[in-house]
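Methods, example record. To illustrate the input and output format used throughout this study, we show the complete record for DUF4177 domain-containing protein. The sequence lines were provided to the predictor; the line carrying structure tokens was produced by it.
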Amino acid sequence: MKEYKIVRQRTKFRNTDSEFENELNALAKQGWIVKSSIVMNSSSLFKVILERDKNRSL
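The corresponding predicted structure is encoded as:
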């Protein structure tokens, strides 16, 4: 069985691409894999859909 998480890049000026990359890398260490990404042009919103095995061994 799989579980999913949606993460969005914060739009605050102090948040950079490298900070978002660090956030995704931290989630990858928890077993999350990027499955898709969405960009909304009207709001400059960027979301990433993550997936991992729900019954994984810790």
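Annotations derived from this record:
Residues 14 and 39 are 20 Å apart (CA to CA).
The chain has one domain: 2-53.
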